[in-house]
């Protein structure tokens, strides 16, 4: 994954995080993509990926007041 991909993933999560699934009432749309999203995030957070990917994802943590991203 590249920094542009981290930015795109962040934008997708921001836009669709609370979107309901039209076919499954009471569930969120992104639930059906959970495995793919977790895989992408794990790749971006891998120690061998380098600090540039971590830097690309930090603005999202600051916007959401994420304790993990601001505590490191």
From TrEMBL:
Report the superkingdom from the record. Answer: Eukaryota
The cross-references to Pfam families, in alphabetical order and at most eight, read: Laa1_Sip1_HTR5
What biological processes does GO assign it?
A: carbohydrate metabolic process
Write down what this protein is called. Uncharacterized protein
What is the protein's species of origin? Salix viminalis (Common osier)
